[in-house]
Amino acid sequence: MGFGKGHHLHLIDGSAYIFRAYHALPPLTRADGTPVGAVSGFSNILWTELTRERASDAATHIAVIFDYSSKTFRNQIYEAYKANRPPPPEDLKPQFPLTREATRAFNVACIEVEGYEADDIIATLARQAVEAGGSATIISSDKDLMQLVRPGIDILEPMKNRKIGPDEVFEKFGVGPERVIDVQALAGDSVDNVPGAPGIGLKTAALLINEYGDLDQLLERAGEIKQPKRRQSLIDNREQILVSRQLVSLDDQTPLDISLDDLEVKKPEPEALLGFLTKMEFRGLARRVAERLKVDVPVIEAAKPAAPASAAETPAEPLRLGFDYDSYEAVHDLAALDRWIARIHEVGHVAFDTETTSLDEMQAELVGISLAVDPGKACYIPLGHSEGGGDLFGAARKVEGQLPLEAVLARLKPVLEDPAVLKIGQNIKYDLKIMARLGIRIAPLDDTMLLSYAQNAGRHNHGMDELSELYLGHKPLPIKELIGAGKSQITFDQVKLEDAVKYAAEDADITLRLWQVLKPKLHLNRVTTVYETLERPLVPVLADMEMAGIRVDRDTLSRMSNAFAQKLAQYEDEILEIAGEKFNPGSPKQLGEVLFDRLGVPGGEKGKTGAYGTGADVLEDITTLKDAHPQGAALAAKILDWRQISKLKSTYTDALQQAINPETGRVHTSYSIAGATTGRLASTDPNLQNIPVRTEEGRRIREAFVAPEGKVLVSLDYSQIELRILAHMANIPALKQAFHDGHDIHAMTASEMFGVPLEGMDPMIRRQAKAINFGVIYGISGFGLARNLRIPRAEAQGFIDRYFERFPGIRSYMDDTVAFAKANGFVKTLFGRRINTPEINAKGPGAGFAKRAAINAPIQGTAADVIRRAMIRMPAAIAGLEARMLLQVHDELLFEVREADAARLIASARAVMEAAAEPAVKLDVKLVAEAGQGRNWAEAH
């Protein structure tokens, strides 16, 4: 069958890859002296592209496109075209034919046409693909190709692994793809020696084209332009501008002697490919290829010294390799660092870790970097170690033998940003933020913590030490032995160098070995899609959000703290009046004695310490005893109020003032991706997800979160997403219809259950229905509902029984879910996330909790997956706006945006959120995102 609908063509800009590989890699020569560094980099990039796992845009056809020579038809139009470009380096010239040979060895079409540039060939093939009913992705960082973007044609920028569509083109040129040529013709290009219009740059060109429509109209009406310099430049250089348009316009009618059908993806022929790699002496890549193709690894011998021998050259199980701390290397000179970088490029991956002075990524200073490429072989690059007593004032003195930070970053930046090199970390989000502050954007990445989380959520934690003991049988060096604890604790920059090398290099070594164990298991456990679409791509999104932070008004917090202090004093007076005696309301022991011993409230239970339990659940139960024990009920209610205000003051209005970053003036929370088994994110340092919103005082905390001058905060919140998912998963027609009709779902439930009309409904009845709706999702018991509504238990159980009678599908869903969990040991979200339920078959008090967790997990987990998908898509959706995503709080996303762009942001973000489940899942109930905006978070929500 010929190329057509459903087929997808990948067009790789081979010439650009060669130069990038050449400049990114240190010189590398074959045994016979032939330079092959660029060929090595090119081959690794090509192999990465061929083995990259994609979903919707997987290539069915592929080709690598090259420039035939530096002379093309454009030199006949304008002799000086590209005349300014220097000739290629002498050691690169012999590598050009080898890259073509490499392409053919990989069984990929290799295309070049005399007299035309690679860009012209790409334009022609992309056009043919769309006209045949298929689509094309151009893999290149060349801005000149952006003129080709249209429905069916997009660009993948390999350095950043990001898609280029119309929005990204507009961000670059200020116009849509169809007007890129006009803008380039005006602005010219000094690199390619395209003359353009003198004095007119990209921004001015975009302004002119947007005002006049296109280049022809602009030149026709040039005399109308008010600015004299612009007007004269356009009039005087009309012919030059038109020539420039010819030079920048890609020829999509390039004559080709190859058809789209000839470009169908084919598996490499092992003999041909390994023969080429053997000839090139590319050991690491040959090994990876052989393993992938399931053939014997070829033996490659070379006369020259190669990279250090490693365990990966003679494959061994990571579990069986010992941890020899003496084999770890301290990198003290740049030549040694270059050898490690060369090995990284040869293998195509590196385990990467940073050592710093603090766990706060926004203030931590980089102390050192550790790398591991092969199991048992790792290095540490010390950068900022110091020792005290260095001068008359006792100031720290930098330890000798360390490399300059700038020189190390300059060498590591290309490899850390190279899309052909996979960077592997354990909780790599931390390292992303450390390096981003130093101007390096790490990509692509793998995270061993998330590899474990995708497979084992609910079974165990995913910290490195625990994973190391579980999978490698090895207990890592404890950090406390190096830095101590308490008042005597030191920071890592003060750790002795020889100790730091062992500790830091071991971290990288363990991370690499965990990756070798965990990555292959993704497919076996059928969670590859979960990891690739929900976990891994979320890391850089969260890192950017955390670095952005949110502005907090210290004065507002201070005023709130003072108001809360006065409120607490008032409550303490009222507590004294109710109790009839003075005691410390913050003391659980004293409170228990007053409630159960002196006031005689029934039901008091003492714990192991001999003190009565006075937790929130106990006090909530006591508040229901208004008739039986009014004094105890009143005291319990007032203590709960006191505790709430006390917590707001200590946890938020006081603590948030301390959390404001002195450099940014903003609060930077940290999100834990692997904290909850269901996929929900957790927020720490500070926790911004537990700010109470049910009380007026709690809602007021959000007033302190503000937008800078000229900007507003925008909140988009999913409306009742878990109930909508429940309606879909449990297939409840009444709920689905109510959502479809836009009814008040809680009022509808109350009407169904209690037989009361929707019009003029008692708010108390609606509140009871709301508590039941949400309670059922969490598997609430009659006892729990009674506590929430402060009603007798029998009445609450009657509500639940009636609920299941009205909506029998919910009971069936719950029973089916528990049965599935018991049979399989896990439950799944609609997107395939696996949530393990190891306690589901347990007996005793924990059995009920395990069942409730299993029932709720698919619903809450699916909701978490939906908002993750929205967050991952959001940066691209709002890229053209002066806006950024700041916070995720349960079902809400909070943005900061220029006031003039707020409406556009809301439209873009809402579209992303409401379509976030698609195309993977088609819900029966439409998702709805409600939006608001304001100068502070309280106004926006």
TrEMBL record:
Gene3D superfamilies registered for this protein in UniProt: 3.30.70.370, 5' to 3' exonuclease, C-terminal subdomain, 5'-nuclease, Ribonuclease H-like superfamily/Ribonuclease H, Taq DNA Polymerase, Chain T, domain 4
CDD domains: DNA_pol_A_pol_I_C, DNA_polA_I_Ecoli_like_exo, H3TH_53EXO, PIN_53EXO
Catalytic class of the enzyme: transferase
Residue ranges constituting the 3'-5' exonuclease domain according to the UniProt record: 328-523
EC code: 2.7.7.7
NCBIfam families: pola (TIGR00593), PRK05755.1 (NF004397)
Subunit structure: Single-chain monomer with multiple functions.
Protein family membership: Belongs to the DNA polymerase type-A family.
Listed name of the protein: DNA polymerase I
Organism: Pseudogemmobacter faecipullorum
